[in-house]
Every structure is written in C-alpha cells, then in structure tokens.
Amino acid sequence: MLMKGESGLQAILMAGLITGVLDGLSAIAVSAYFGAGPVRVFQGIASGLLGRSAFQGGFGTALLGALLHFVIATGAAAVYYLASRSLPVLLDRALVCGVLYGVCVHLFMTFVVIPLSAIGRRPFVPQSFAAFLLVAMIVIGPSIALNIRHFSLR
C-alpha cells in the first residue's frame, strides 16, 4: 500500500492516475455536451499521434488514446512535482497554485502540443476552449497539486 511521502515517483504516479481518471470523466462529460461520445474523445487523443486515421481505428485507437491520456496526466504531474522541490509555495498553496497550473497546462496543450502533433492547428472554438479551460482550472491543476502535496514529502 502506498504510504504518504514514500517516494517522488509514487506521488507522481498517484497524481497522474487520479488526475487522469477525473479529467477523463470530465472530458467525456464536456464532449457529450458538444455531441461526441467517449470513444471519439479518446480517439481524438490518439489522433495526436496517428492523425485522422485514429478515428477509423475503432475501440483500439480509443484504448491507445486512453493510455496516452494517462501518460500526459502523469507527465504534467511530474512537472509539478519537480517544480515543487524548488518552489515550496506549490505545496503550501496547492489549491491556488493548482488552479494556475491548470491554466498553464491548458494553454501549453492548446497552443504548443496540439499544433505540433499529427492533428496540427485546429480552428479556435471559444466555447470549447472555455469549457476545457474550466476543466483544467477546476479538475486538472488542483488534482495534480493536491495529490502531489498529499503523496510527497519536501
């Protein structure tokens, strides 16, 4: 069983797992509002690697997308954990810093990662941008920050 403060790697993995689940559920809910089902959500993530062909791959590419989703969440948790080693405020004020980190993650994914992926630049849709920004501010950033604080020692 994972005990609080056992290791940085375990803190990162737990934060990545918990955030991945919460964000995945949020993405499914928000995407349903915009008319997309769960398989399409995760195929969309896989399309960052495979391009448009991900949408023809059925459940298999959705599984790849789910795996990539957790890799990305864990990577974001690793960045926060490493930064928190030098900036204790990230743990001392985890909720506020988490909200701000969520904004940073969303902007980085939207304007750097996705345009450089196989998806390329996409049209800017303000409603979608705002909805997923709120998810990043309410779910992704705080989940990473609070879980890193909970599962790690300084």
In short:
Keywords: Membrane, Transmembrane, Transmembrane helix. The chain is mainly alpha-helical and 154 residues long.
Describe the structure in your own words.
- This is DUF1440 domain-containing protein.
- Keywords: Membrane, Transmembrane, Transmembrane helix.
- The chain crosses the membrane at residues 12-34, 54-82, 94-117, 129-148.
- It comes from Solibacter usitatus (strain Ellin6076).
- With 154 residues, the chain is mostly helical.
- The chain has one domain (8-151).
- It contains six helices and no strands.
- It has helices spanning 8-33, 38-50, 58-86, 89-92, 94-116, 126-151.
- The model is unreliable at 1-5 (pLDDT under 50).
- Count structural domains: 1
Q: How far apart, in Å, are the first and last alpha carbons?
A: 20 Å
Element-by-element helix/strand order: HHHHHH
Shape: globular
